[in-house]
Amino acid sequence: MQEMLSGVRSEIAENYYDSTFGGVNLAAAYDSASAHIRDAVALSGALGAVAWFALNLNGSHTVFAPPSTTVHVDYGWNMAMFGNACFVVAVKKESDAARQGVRVGDQVLTVAGYAPARANLWQINYLLRVLRPQPTLHATLRDPGGGTRELDLRAKVSQHGVLIDISGADGGRDIGQLIREGEKDAERTRGLSIEFGDDLILWKMPTFATGYDDIYDVLKRARRRKALIIDLRGNGGGYVKTMLELAKQMQRDSLVLGMLHERRRTSPLVAKGRGNDAFTGQLFILVDARSASASEIFARAMQLSGRAIVIGDRTAGAVMEAMYHPKSIGIETKMFYGVQVTQADVIMSDGGRLEGVGVKPDELLLPTAADLAAHRDPVLARAIALAGVPITPEKAGSLYPDKTDQ
User: Fold this and answer.
1) What is the DSSP string of 168-206?
2) Which residues pair with 138 in a beta bridge?
3) pTM to 2 decimals?
4) Domains parsed from the chain with CATH numbers
């Protein structure tokens, strides 16, 4: 484990965007983590020490990726921040959480002994889903009516093989599993566009980790309409080049979104502009606390330029650019791990930073616990109404496929 810690340190020391490490004494942090590894009585404690070392840099993008295990833990429910409160946003039908009455719209007061907040929810998820998955989570929930209850929610724990047989010798079982997982990933990242006559097109964009085809398709149709809504709620970012291509489609002239500050150079983030082919209609951008990275840069750039009205919740404040560095230890038997290292910070065109701050919407609008429980979407309804199409929150909440039980 000391070798693993040393590998993480070397990647951070060589590649972290700030040579001063934000004032963190990297050598002292390393020595402290090394001592914790020596004192650890279990593997989880040693892995936790390596993770703690990376988290010392207080960045949203510098994290340790431990070796994968053969155990898969599925809690059967997910949570997210809305304003300063955390709510259940999805519950699988066959999960223990569903059997015990956990519902979308329940407020999460504590989980595994932690009180979720904007500053720590990603760390809670990192701990419970990556570093130390648990067979049971103790949670304190408050339902929309105000009732509070404490539950021990059992996860679905399954084993999978270390090696995957792609030869077909196992009857195609592993190949089939890979195909099913690939289909699920594709479904999660597939966008959705909805047309409202000649007035409006709504585009739910779940990720920037895609090519340009969806952008070209949606913008081709949007140019014939008065308004475009881009729903970036839940969009955690993706490729900078895709974000710049989308920004390009919104501008006749070139636009400098900000500056990318790397360790050895600073370079502008420029969207070149589309001239007369740019979309020039009304633009509305929806964001929430899960909108991160490229989503935040795009939304803020459009806001600063006066190009768009941003509606929803304050964004994640996690915009730094990072690169994953795969590592391994061992000779005959290898153990694979890695570390994602922040390689650049972003300064917007107004000189402001979004890291740890987020984008403040032009219109701050949040769903209530009752809205979540009833699948109402007041945020989307507000944007559609501003675009000139009257709609109720109930109807807006039914526009997207219901994935709260998946």
Assistant:
1) STTSSHHHHHHHHHHHHHHHHH--EEEEETTTEEEEE--
2) 152
3) 0.90
4) 2-58 (no CATH), 71-158 (2.30.42.10), 186-320+343-397 (3.90.226.10)
